[in-house]
Fold this sequence. Notes:
Elements (H helix, E strand, L loop, with lengths): L13 H4 L9 H12 L2 H8 L17 H13 L4 H10 L1 H7 L11 H14 L1 H15 L25
Amino acid sequence: MNQPMNQLSAGDSLFSSVRWPKARNPRRAEVLAVLELVIPWQELDALVRPHYRADAQRTGRRGYSLPMLIRCRVLQIFWRLSDDGVEALVLDSHSSAKFIGSDPWQPRPPSSSKVRGFRTLLKQTGVDIEFDLAIELAFIGAGLQFRIGCVSEPVFRQSPKRKDNE
Length: 166
């Protein structure tokens, strides 16, 4: 049976299929492709899994998947983002949303409070140091160096009102 024209599956989502003709990949997508290849995802998953079980619980609302939260943390580390910054980056950037495994037709990507909770969990359990070390060792092993980047946005403020001297 054919699917109605206005319904798209997650694999055929408008968000992931629209592309400019003859467009080159954005710089962020190229950086994320390097991260995808270099970072030891299974090692990070095994490191954090004993402490994060929200995505495997049998009752209540399931948490976000561990791989998605690990990828959000990696974005946060490499672009020096706040918790709110990670949420904004994933909502604004097609490459970042694709990197963490998010899709607009699926449940919303992790909010800043969920990212903060995950970051806090890593810190409280002491896994954050091992997490960062595993990433650094993977880059050293690949013969790559990296510098932390940042995403900045303009800030608008109300101009102070001037009194006219009359």
